[in-house]
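Here is one such protein, fold included:

. . .
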Amino acid sequence: MTRRPILWGGLAGLGLAILLAPWTGAALGALSSARAARSEAATALATPVDRSPAVRPDIAFPAETAASAIRSRIDRLARGGGVLVEDIAPVTMPAPLVAVSVRVSGPEKAVLALADAIERERPMLRFRNWRVDPAEGGGVRLSGVVVGATR
């Protein structure tokens, strides 16, 4: 191979690099700003989390006995309303919250009154999601997840 084609190839490559330099510089600048933003976000996430209570203490459950308190409350209300508790199981939630999966069945009026009573009593409980389905014998089945706060 002679030197002339190598020279033309080298000059063509150099010319292409000069033409693409502005776009390359812009891409490197955008990459640099993205890396800076990512490092700022990482330092913001590394700061300690504020552990202030999510709700007032009078409407939150004690953290140690929250799941059992919710279970006993649902059992008490269901027994008083003539509703069958089919299943109560704890559900994992982030630290200041406690959740319990509930499935109850009975007459429609009694089941809906139970759901209302669960949400009206203190400490505060709310249904995260719920579903009412027809059950055997003309009744209904309520299934859902009840969420409360802990102190």
Notes: The helical segments are 3-46, 66-81, 108-120. The mean pLDDT is 87.
